[in-house]
Amino acid sequence: MHFYFTATLICLVWVASATIIKRDPSRQYYTLHFPLDEAATQHHAKKIAASLGTRYEGPVGELKTYFMVSSELPGVVKRSSDQQVDPVLAAFEQQKENGALLKRSADDSVAWSKVQRIDKQILKRRSKRAVIPRAPILSSGKLVLEDAKASLGIKDPGFTNQWHLVNQETTGNDINVTSVWKQGVTGKGTVVAILDDGLDYDSKDLKDNFYAEGSYDFNDHVDLPTPVLWNDYHGTRCAGQIAAVKNDACGVGIAYDAKVSGIRILSGEITDVDEAAALNYKYQENHIFSCSWGPPDDGRTMEAPNGILADAFINGIENGRGGKGTVYVFATGNGGDAGDNCNFDGYTNSIYTITVGAIDHADRHPSYSESCSAQLVVTYSSGGGKSIYTTNHGNEECTDMHGGTSAAAPNAAGIFALVLSVRPDLTWRDMQHLCVQTALPVDLKDKDWKQLPSGRMYNHKYGYGKLDSWAIVEAAKEFKSVNKQTYLELPVEMNKTAIPDSTSGKHKKPLQSVVQITEAMVAAAGLSRLEHITATVNIEHQRRGDIQMVLASPNKVESELATVRLGDSSPDGIHNWKFMTVKHWEENPIGNWTLFVYDEINADSTGYMLNWTMTLFGEMDPGFEGEPIHRPDVNHDTTNDGTTSVIKPSSSATSTQSKETHAPARPTRVKPVTTTTASSTSKTVTTTTSPASTTPTSHMDDDEAVSPGGSAADKDDNSDHSVFIYAFVGTAAILGLATAMYLHKRKDWRAPSLPRQTPSTAPIASMDYEFDELKPEEEDEDDHDDYEEGESSDARPLLSQQQQDQHQQQQDR
Ligand SMILES: *[C@@H]1O[C@H](CO)[C@@H](O)[C@H](O)[C@H]1NC(C)=O
Ligand SMILES: *[C@@H]1O[C@H](CO)[C@@H](O)[C@H](O)[C@H]1NC(C)=O
Ligand SMILES: *[C@@H]1O[C@H](CO)[C@@H](O)[C@H](O)[C@H]1NC(C)=O
Ligand SMILES: *[C@@H]1O[C@H](CO)[C@@H](O)[C@H](O)[C@H]1NC(C)=O
To answer: What is the CATH number of the domain that holds 560?
Structure first.
């Protein structure tokens, strides 16, 4: 417990100031508060410290009105009846009150008249053992609000409008945060970086919590993320949700004593290099990265952070936050109405990001919020006629029009800031475990809720449910960090098996591929507790949106990996795409897993399955010794009907050991610069298996794509050598190809100048629900239009060429 206390303090001091006071766990710390910042204050503080018999330690960070003093921890605690008396507090009380009776020097008297209060630090920090203040049974949201205002001194005029904090209309439909604040847990010591457009750090509501050292503008390459464009307001709104100061402007942030950095990437062009740098920017000081953007949510895009960007995420989780891992929070996306699914977005379906969707004030699913099996949790945002009230750009400006999954991600980031302020030592995976363990299922009438073997509920629209600030902070206090990650990887060669048509007939016959997982494999990988599962899939298909995929566990839990996307007519197929699911968290993996692949909608477009790899990630058994075997040596086998392939454990499961030393490290992912078209795929697809030598119509291979001859080296995919060589070639290639990629891709991945609410008439069919054309002066009206349309919301900013082009057109007009 001392550890948390100490860690929090060190963290605080380190963030706030260069003044670092070495902490001694055998001492008790107190702060003295002098409301007036005067020249002699430090002198007064020393006087008080002396007359209390304590040691003067120094000022607290950059706060000029707080000073730290300390005393030895009392060896034997004296009790009067059953009440423990703190000698320093008692002495303070006594000397402050009875000053007139004590013989004091004039100097001492002045000091005593200036000091306002003393706070015992350890009590505040040691919330783990502290008794949670028993809130009065507050039957209605109104009472909760009044109680919070009174007990916490919240004077922000907009607080009453922040229904996501305290819902006065429907009691309980909020993030349940006031009892957390009342414990003194307000985000202190945590820094959240907002990767977005500008951040109005001059705003009265943000300036005291703005962390300039963690901020940067990657669009204009200057130090501060100043909003410049007329529509640079999104980052400011997100920052307000997280850390709007408790003052008399607007509302309050969820973690109103946390700090926010602004990392400006969405207000213009950035390169992959910039984006990679942004994803790791000051990642020792910026603890949480809140990201409300991604590839277009148009129901037909399929893009992932490959190459340098993939490495930036791995670097973040391995080295960020002193090795505990950057906490990346991503919005699921607003493509729900366009039939999009967050498993087709490589940012949201990454195991390294916490994927957060939206619910509205009625605890319902707003239609814009994307579903998928990679979604972990949901939290509040717009829909059903209400949006989020938060800070706006411009001094003391507020808005009640913030929404979309764009607003859900920062709300989650704010809650995670509260968690880290109590337990800064938690890892990126601990945070995901806490989400799984404490989320509350909502809207239980929804048919997709499924009771899992763990006893928890999961729903592709809601993940494990909504975040409850109180529940997650309480659980965090007691949480035992999980052991390091391991994985078990099982490649299946499908030898280009045709995917049967599923469009007609009652009995759909999907292509089935079975992977048998044995106790021995799990033991050899050291896997003790299952977390994420990825399925890396290679399919050639004439119409990508027709493919539907379900992964079924031995316990009959079904994850929707790929859903039909009507708008996706791409002939490019699926190349080394990692679908991800969190639905099997803590399930027993032993038994037969089946991947079902359906070909829906259009009978005349067909395809083949080339191969797939199931990877189970999870906690390594703390008692495991030796080298884990991540890729057991298995025999591939196909049943005679050609539609089922099974892999079985071989008798010599220990013969192959991967050279990879830590879990998430894979051969680097790069996009080859060559592209081939799908024209070689004939219209009529044969239904028998054919040799695996066919070159895939790939331009997006992201694994191992740089070995000479492309797929030539794949045959012996269990070979020790091939893994090793891939890793080597991949590593070399990333250096070599970084430049090529930079040149090749800079046009593809720069951010739009109009990251959201794109005022364009250029038709993006699936996105017209979002906005109408607007001029800068009409911004507010536009917001209102959105609002009246109900569930449509502000879009997640997009990172695409398309948007860029539209912006160009718009400017040209
Ligand atoms: C909200 O917080 C209170 C503690 O103040 C807790 O008792 C309750 O279980 C939490 N969750 C809900 C849904 O009320
Ligand atoms: C799993 O698959 C293997 C291989 O097809 C089969 O022999 C075994 O009976 C299956 N196990 C279960 C529990 O279905
Ligand atoms: C699957 O096939 C693709 C395309 O041919 C290839 O790039 C990849 O390496 C293969 N993966 C496995 C695990 O065999
Ligand atoms: C795939 O083809 C190769 C080479 O023809 C063969 O060795 C292997 O057993 C086949 N695998 C399956 C699953 O059919």
So the answer is: 2.60.120.260
